[in-house]
Amino acid sequence: MPEKRGARRRAAASAEAPVREARRVVVKVGSSLVTNDGRGLDADAISQWGRQLAELRALGREVLMVSSGAVAEGMKRLGWTRRPHAMDELQAAAAVGQMGLAQVYESAFRAHGLQTAQVLLTHEDLADRKRYLNARSTLLALLALGVVPIINENDTVVTDEIKFGDNDTLGALVANLIDADALIILTDQAGLFTADPRRDPDARLLERVVAGDPALEAMAGGVGSSIGRGGMITKVLAARRAASGGVHTVVASGRERDVLVRLAAGEAIGTLFVAQTPRLAARKTWLADHLQLRGAVRLDAGAARALVAGGRSLLPIGVTAVSGDFSRGEAVAICDPEGTEIARGLINYSSAETRLIMRRPSSEIEAILGFMEHPELIHRDNLVLRQQDQIAAKADLARSGRSSPRSGRP
Ligand code: GLU
């Protein structure tokens, strides 16, 4: 039951020292760091991150790593000195280099007592409801098992990060996917400067900014390294995306000694991009806004009460009727015995499966269907109460400085 174990309630990290308070952290490292500016995989740097992540784990933190470097390492292994322009050649290089990446992470992290797992994802995987749930539950299961997932884009089937991001966007998407408290983007720059520090001697490091502030994009323009694709602009955009899920981001130099351990101890290093919407409210707002309803389930009075007043997940035993035709991961309305919608959420079973397991205890799911995805029909974290949705919207309005709409206004 990984979803249940991994998705326990956590206090959101404060904006004062987000990494110190973060329980779940995503660390993203770019190609130039991982491959020592294209000279080949830097086993020593990878080992240093492993040592630091082992320290974080010993402090009870859950950690995931998003690592680029496959293309750069593949180029080295293929003897290419210039980055090719043809997309299929870049993808081929990524496939070659990924072997080395997995190899070095596995042995370097094992030396620090960390077990690793390779996870290759695409943006589409995270946009598709079913794959989103699958990726989320696999990652949460790995965290619950104490394993450190090492994530890269699946460059064989997509080219998003090869073209634009060097995995900065992927880091943000992963942070949102698993409800991380903080995203740390390690790079070869000290953080975000007011101008390009390599060209402007007056450029000043920004220590703390609000993620999503449009002025940041202008400051970030043009700063980039030749090895990775990202530069600073994709980091600013990734921080904005992470913040939309309530995740704070730090962009800092990966060459800074003990950077991860010091950030976790509360030291201010690099640039902190503060997320203004709390994580839980952000997720609930996202769920409420982005879901197209594919069907509905009707509950008995006890289940409706447990959901609204008890803050529980929805179990199949409380469902009395199913309408519509939906697949695992799609959004459904959750209705009380009178048929009034009280919540909506992402369902773990298809409509056909739900019809078979409704009114039955979760312990019977496997005997009925031949498998069990989850004991819950809809996990609490994937569910938003209609009334909670209004509370989150009001809180967002208040934060943005506007007053709540007066009654009577459209
Ligand atoms: N996912 C790719 C990698 O790991 C992106 C980086 C790039 O295009 O150089 O290598």
Description:
This protein is 42% helix and 18% strand. With 410 residues, the protein is α/β, with parallel strands linked by helices. It has an eight-stranded mixed beta sheet with strand order 3-4-2-1-5-7-8-6, sandwiched between helices. A five-stranded mixed beta sheet has the order 10-9-11-12-13, sandwiched between helices. Strand 11 (331-335) and strand 12 form a beta hairpin. It starts with a helix and ends in an 11-residue tail after the last helix. Residues 1-11, 223-228 and 389-410 have low confidence and may be disordered. The protein binds glutamic acid (GLU). Glutamic acid (GLU) is lined by residues 31, 68-72, 94, 152-153, 155, 161-162, 166-167, 228-229.
